[in-house]
Automatic annotation (TrEMBL):
Name the UniProt record assigns to this protein: HTH-type transcriptional regulator LutR
MF GO annotations: DNA binding; DNA-binding transcription factor activity
Lineage: Bacteria, Bacillati, Bacillota, Bacilli, Bacillales
Pfam families: FCD (PF07729), GntR (PF00392)
InterPro entries named in the record: GntR_C, TF_FadR/GntR_C, Tscrpt_reg_HTH_GntR, WH-like_DNA-bd_sf, WH_DNA-bd_sf
Keywords tagged on the record: DNA-binding, Transcription, Transcription regulation
Ranges of residues in domain HTH gntR-type: 7-75
Amino acid sequence: MTEFRLKKGSELIQEYLLEQLRGGIYMPGDKLPSVEALAQQYAVGRSTIREALSALKAMGWLDIRHGGGTFVRKYEQTPSQQLQGWLTNVESVKSLIEVRKMIEVGSAGLAAKRRTSADLQAMAACLHRMEKHLEDEEASQHDDFLFHVLLAEASHNEVLIPMLQMFHQKCAEHMGETRRMWLFGERSSTTQLLEEHRRIYEAIDAQDDKLASHRMLEHLSKIEARLD
């Protein structure tokens, strides 16, 4: 049976505060209420508030001054910080999946054309580990993530490879969530998800770029459909 992770209190507080930051309730330069005041407002512990504030700081939204309070940052976020911040609601996740489709469908086609025997061995070994870890959701999720990275590397495009590596690194948590959406929406098991990846691999092995792209599109479209 697939287990679904419930959000921690700090993650919920982070989402509430992020909505206020995006909605202009707190403007650049504004000082947020104290940790104690926020803890009382949301009826949670101070450690929960501190964890949420630290996450928002890492995303580029806040400046925490020890002994001086927490302030909304005035400067623009970097693209990678914006990307992390966007992954907090369904519409943003839909947009991200659209981007994944545009990039990874083409990447699968290139991999089919350019893959080497070493690339195939690496992807096959990853699929073997995924099969071995069918009962271990955390390990299986890691294998899932690695398969997409190995596929990008098999494209042998010097621009695409580092771009996709960075993209997947930033979106690792999101990919885990969409993986769980796939499992829940299909009422299926990790065995069927493994088969999705195996079918993509077989098309790459056969050097059928159109089929590889089609199967990747099919794979990502299933995730997208779960959000409707």
